[in-house]
Amino acid sequence: MDLLADFYLTLKALHIISIIAWMAGMLYLPRLFVYHVDAPVGSAQSETFKVMEERLLRYIMTPALIASWVFGLLLSLMPHLDAWSSGWFHGKLFLLLLLSGIHGFFAKLRKDFLADRNERPARFFRIINEVPTVLMIGIVFLAILKPF
Description:
With about 150 residues, the protein is mostly helical. It has helices spanning about 5-35, 45-75, 85-115, 120-130, 130-145.
């Protein structure tokens, strides 16, 4: 195999690994919020959730988001892919921007919990937990099927 093909496969593997880590966090953090809502403010349980949420966001989700974008953009620059002129790629980028925005929204929600000022009910977090899943499904179908 030539060097470019090896580099492409390595980038692709790193991109998939980083996406798996990012999505794991995107699906788990809102679940933590669901349970955090029920923990009394100032309780040991609430403080534990704060630590868990902060570590998940800071040490797993955000680095995985950055890695996903870096590896994905590097892949999109591979000469044989011609991704930037493809409609499916523009759709995927749009959904990725939405997913990244949800990540930022989750970070804001974590800050609300950190300051003990969350006013949203558990039902809100159960519903918002589904948004990353829906976006992920769209992204995967666009990337694999390349429908347009």
